[in-house]
Amino acid sequence: MIRRMTELLLKGGRIIDPMTDHDSTGDLLIRDGVIVAISTTPLTSADETIDCEGCIVSPGLIDIHVHFRDPDESGHHEETIATGTAAAAAGGFTTVCCMPNTTPAIDSCTVVDAIRKRAAAAAQARVFAVACGTVGRRGETLSPILDLVEAGAIAISDDGDGIADSGMMQRILSLVAAADSVFMQHCQDPTLTRDAAMNAGALATRLGLGGWPREAEELMLRRDLVLNRSIGARYHAQHLSVAESVSALREARSEGQPATGEASPHHLLLTEDACDNWNTLAKVNPPLRTSADIEAIKSGIAEGIITVLATDHAPHPAASKDTDFASAAFGMVGLECALPLYREALIDDGVLDWPAMLGMMTCEAAAVAGLDQLGLGRLEVGGPADVTVIDPDAAWAIDPSQFHSTGRNCPFAGRMATGRALATIVDGRITASAIEGRALAR
Ligand SMILES: [Zn+2]
After folding, report:
1. How many Å lie between the centroid of ligand 1 and the Cα of residue 208?
2. Does this chain's domain 7-57+383-433 share its CATH topology with 59-374?
3. How far away, in angstroms, is 442 Cα from ligand 1 center?
4. CA angle 43-48-53, nearest 5°?
5. Which listed residue (312, 372, 386, 391) is catalytic?
6. Separation of 164 CA from ligand 1 center, angstroms?
7. Do residues 347 and 340 touch, judged by C-beta distance below 8 A?
8. Catalytic site residue 195?
């Protein structure tokens, strides 16, 4: 259910805007979808008020890496823009960027346009399409990158696969630079990962599973950064999983390359040990690695080398996981538990404070995808009223059966979580609320 109103007052919260280093207790007033006041002195409203005492009032959370499986002509019906945006709203996200491994793939302006129309109808979160670098994500024929960006694609990626061919990658980077867009790379050298199911090592050997070498990620990342030296396209490395990737990104950024990187909750909280006993819920691409990799990614975050926290939300039907490990699908859902998981990994561990962590989920994410141009990722008087009210201390147990996503494939089921979205507001409308102790989304 979406409640419509003209005026909404968020009262007495800790208002954090990482973009401007604003951090003060006060009131935030929204009128007709626009933030009209941010004040340390009390404001009044004629319409609706949310008591935000003890809560954080943040710019709406942005996830630049989700899989909504929409369009889906495969008949699997794993997720739709409607269920995906309901999940986003419940998790505190107001904007998501959808990856192009759909059926058909997002490789034409027609598909970009169809997603935009469906997103407008769903209206629980802003949805932006990431379009393919190659036709059908097959890595063989260049897609019409300039036209796709013109049609509204927010970024270019073949996510699910990396661009294996170096010549193709060079052409893509050149076109992405010409379009002033960003390329988001899924770093995986496919010649090293045939039949790979989990991190290469002793555990994979004991479980009898194909090993996924860490070099598969570093090699593609380093190749891209070498190619991009003379091109200078905006380049974003998705879901980093190994320590060597952090080093590669550090070097490129120190050379002045416009390269960014992203972390995902599972790569910060789980190691390959979660795959023991052939636990298919822990099967993900790239695979879970080691505790040393987790520490390196945290260092990269603390140093500001990795600037974005995403989810790689990847829903699958139960049958895709309820099978043997080698045959099971890669991926896990993330939108509805990312916020407390990031709190656990980064704030509770002393890596970041709330303003710094929220910056990686708002203005930094917006900057990578160019969403800052639309006024997203910040709290600004006169700007769009995308706001997330967070109860930082709400304690709850993660229960995938309660998720709005159709995906139940979550390795964190049963884990105690601290922190959750109390209200999610998009364009001044409440899209999800736990104010009365239950989610009102959908
Ligand atoms: Zn990926």
Report:
1. 24
2. no
3. 28
4. 60
5. 312
6. 14
7. no
8. no
How much distance in Å is there from the Cα of 356 to the middle of ligand 1?
25
User: CA nearest 65: which of 429, 332, 340, 411?
Assistant: 332
- Ligand 1 centre to CA of 377 (Å) is 23
Q: Which CATH class is domain 59-374?
A: alpha beta
Pairing of strands 93-98, 61-66: parallel
In the chain, the amino acid numbered 341 is: L
Phi and psi at residue 433, in whole multiples of 5°? -150, 135
Q: How many CB atoms are closer than 10 A to CB 329?
A: 20
At 409, the amino acid letter reads: N
Location of structure tokens 């990187």: 261
What residues form DSSP beta bridges with 17? 22
Encode pLDDT of 315-357 as tens digits: 999 999 999 999 999 999 999 999 999 999 999 999 999 999 9
Bridge partners (DSSP) listed for residue 259: 235
Q: Is 409 within 8 Å of 394 (Cβ atoms)?
A: no
| Residue 63 contacts residue 23 (beta carbons within 8 Å) | no
DSSP sequence for 168-212: HHHHHHHHHHHTT-EEEE----GGG-TT--EESSHHHHHHT--EE
How far, CA to CA in Å, does 119 sit from each of 114, 123, 125? 9, 6, 8
List, in order, residues 6 or more apart from 410 with CB less than 8 Å away: 281, 332, 333, 334, 337, 398, 400, 403
Segment 361-415, tens digit of pLDDT:
999 999 999 999 999 999 999 999 999 999 999 999 999 999 999 999 999 999 9
| Neighbour count for residue 214 (Cβ, 10 Å) | 22
Tell me how far apart the alpha carbons of residues 28 and 352 are, in angstroms, rounded to a whole number. Answer: 25
Query: Is residue 150 within 8 Å of 181, Cβ to Cβ?
Result: no
In tens, the pLDDT along 4-58 reads 558 999 999 999 999 999 999 999 999 999 999 999 999 987 789 999 999 999 9
Dig out the tokens for 230 from the structure.
């003379």
The full set of domain ranges for the chain reads 7-57+383-433, 59-374
Does the domain formed by 7-57+383-433 have CATH 2.30.40.10?
Answer: yes
Name the pTM for this structure. Answer: 0.96
Beta-carbon contacts of residue 435 (< 8 Å; ≥ 6 apart): 50, 422, 423
Amino acid at 196: A
Closest CA to 58 of 429, 387, 422: 387
